[in-house]
Amino acid sequence: MPELLLELFSEEIPARMQAKAADDLRRMVTDKLVAEGLVYEGAKAFATPRRLALTVHGIPARQPDLKTERRGPKVGAPDAAVQGFLKATGLKSLDEAKIQRDPKGDFYIGLIEKPGRDAIDVLAEILPVIIRTFPWPKSMRWGARSGKPGSLSWVRPLHAITATFGPETEDPDIVKFEVDGIETGQTTYGHRFMAPGAISVRRFEDYEAKLKAAKVILDPQARKDIIFEDAKELTFAQGFELVEDHVLLDEVSGLVEWPVVMMGSFEEEYLAIPDEVIRATIRNNQKCFVVKDPKTGKLTNKFVLTANIEATDGGKVIVSGNERVIRPRLSDAKFFYETDLKTKLEDRLPKFEQIVFHEKLGTQAARIKRIERLAAEIAPLVGADVAKATRAAHLAKADLLTEVVGEFPEVQGLMGKYYALAQGEDASVAAACEEHYKPQGPTDRVPTDPVSVAVALADKLDTLVGFWAIDEKPTGSKDPYALRRAALGVIRLIAENALRLSLMKVAASALAGLSVQPADAQKLPSDLLAFFADRLKVQLREQGARHDLVDAVFALGGQDDLLMIIRRVEALGKFLDSDDGKNLLAGTKRASNILSIEEKKDKRSFDGTPDASLYSLAEEKALAKAIGEVKAEASAAVAKEDFAAAMSAMAKLRPPVDAFFDKVRVNDDDAKVRENRLKLLNEIRSATRAVADFSKIQD
Prior knowledge:
The protein is α+β, with helices and mostly antiparallel strands. It contains 25 helices and 20 strands.
C-alpha cells in the first residue's frame, strides 16, 4: 500500500517547540485521513532544528465509495417538497427513489452514491490547510514572494515542502499543492554547513538514509542517544562521570542535526562555588553538561558541550569559544556568592517589609512571622525542637534576597542552606532552609528531619489557609498559586513521616494568625479538609489504589487525622479485595437499596432498635446477634486504631447477612414484621458504618 512522505523545511525551530510540533503534525494529518475514509496502518513524525517530517504508511490508494440513504417527504407530499428532495439527492425523478413504510406513513428514500477520490487528490486538498492552520505557540510572517507580501504564518521562514505519495514498489508521485508561493516537490537539503546542497528524495526510507549521508540525524531519540552515550564515554575515558540531565538532553538534541560531543574545562578556583551554582551557570548559559569525580561525588572543572559540526581542527576553536563564554559567567557567579556571604541571612529580613506577598495577605515579612508562629505550634506534634523550628522558619525565605538566587531562582532554598551553614547555624536549621519547599511534586523527595517537616507544613498550610480565606481557590484547570501542589505536599509529609496531627486545629490556628478574616471563618477548616480529601483521592488514583474508599471513610465525618484516614482506607481496600469483603459489600448495598425504596414508599425512615420478640426465623435472630457482636468488636478495634481487626470483625457479618437474604422475605404481609425486618436492615447499615460508609463504595 502507498505511503506518504511530508517534510516542512524551514529556518531553525526553537528546541522547546519541536516535540509538540511533530506530534501535532502527525495528529492533524492522520485525523484528516481517517475523516476522509483513508484508514492508515502507521504514522511517525520527526523534528530537527530545520525540519518537521512525517511518514504515514499503509494508506489506501483511493477512498471507498460511499452510499448513504436520505429520507425524503411522505408519498403524496406537495411538489415543492418533492423537488427539493430530488435536488438534494441528485435523483432525476421519483422513479429512482425507494418507498419505505413507516407507522407514520410511506416515505421516499433516496440512495446517494458518492464515488471515492484518489488518495493523492485528497492529500493535495488537506495538507495545505493543515500547514496554514498549524498551531505554533508563536509564529511570524516574513518577506515577500513574487512581489507580494507573505501570507503564511509559520514559526520561522518556511523554505521548501517535500510531499510524495505512492507504493513502495514504484516511484512515488509528488502531492501537488502550493502554500504562500512555495510549491511542493521532492527536494530537501542536508546539514547547513557540512552538506548544504539539494537532495532529491523519493520515499521515507531513502529520505532518512540520504539525510544521514548529508550529516542530518532525523530521529530526535537517535540524536539523544548519540549525545548521551558519547558524553558518558568521553567522561569515563578521562576518569570522570557525567552528571545526567535528561531535560537538558532533550533541549540540546533539538539544537543540533549532527551531534558532536566535546569536553572543555574552566579554572579550578571556581570550584569554590557550590556545585549547584556551577551547574546552573553552565547549563543555563551554554547548554552544557557538568562532570563530577566519581570518588568524591563533587564537580570537577570540566564540562561537556555538543557541537553541530565536525570541525577540521578537532573542535579546538569550538571548545575554546565555549570556555571563553563560561569563564566570565562563573566569575560573576563567584562574585555573587562571595558577596552574599558577607551579609547574614537575618540582616536581609527587613527588606521583606517592603515586599508584598499578596495585596490581601500582606507583606512577606508578615507571612514569615505567621510561618514562625505556626512552625512553633506544629513542632511538638512532629517531634521537632521548637526553638530550632522557629529559627528555621525565621531564616527560610531570606535567601530570596541574595544575588545568587536573583540570578538563578532554581537554587532558592538550597542557597539558604549553604548560607545558613556558613554563618554557623544548626544543621537541622540549615537543612530546613532548603527542605521547607519540599515536596514540590509527586516524585520529589519528602523531608524527614522533624525541623524541616515542621517548617514545610507551616509554609504550605499558611499558603492554603491564606488563599482559602481570601477566596482564591483553584477552579477547573486554573491554580495560579499551586494550591493543589501544596495540599499534596502536606499529604505526603504526613503519610510518609507517619505524623499524627489534627488538620482542622492547625488550619484554625493558621487562620487566627491572618490579618484578614473571612465571613464564614468557622466553615473554612472543614472546607479545606474536603479539598485535602479530593487531593488524597487524586493521589490514590495515580497510585492505582481505590480512590472511592476515601469518600467512604470521609463520609463518617469528624475525621481530620490524615494518617488514620489513609490507614483506614488501606485496610478497607484489602478487606474489599477478599471474598468476605466483596460479599458483605453486596449484602450491605442490597440492604441499603431495599431500605431506600421502602423509605421512599412509606415516606419515613426505619431507625430504632428492632423488637426481638418479633423475630420468627432463626436467620433473623442470628443476624441480630451477629450485628450486636460485630458492632461492639469493630468499634473497639477502631478506637484502638486497629483497622485490620475492625475489618476482620466485619467479615463475621457475611454469613448471617447471606443467610438472611436467602431465607427471609423482608416485605412480609404482617406490617409489624415488615417494619421490624426493615429496622434490622438498617442495623446492617449502621454496623458497617463503624468502619466506613459502604454506600459510597463503588461496586
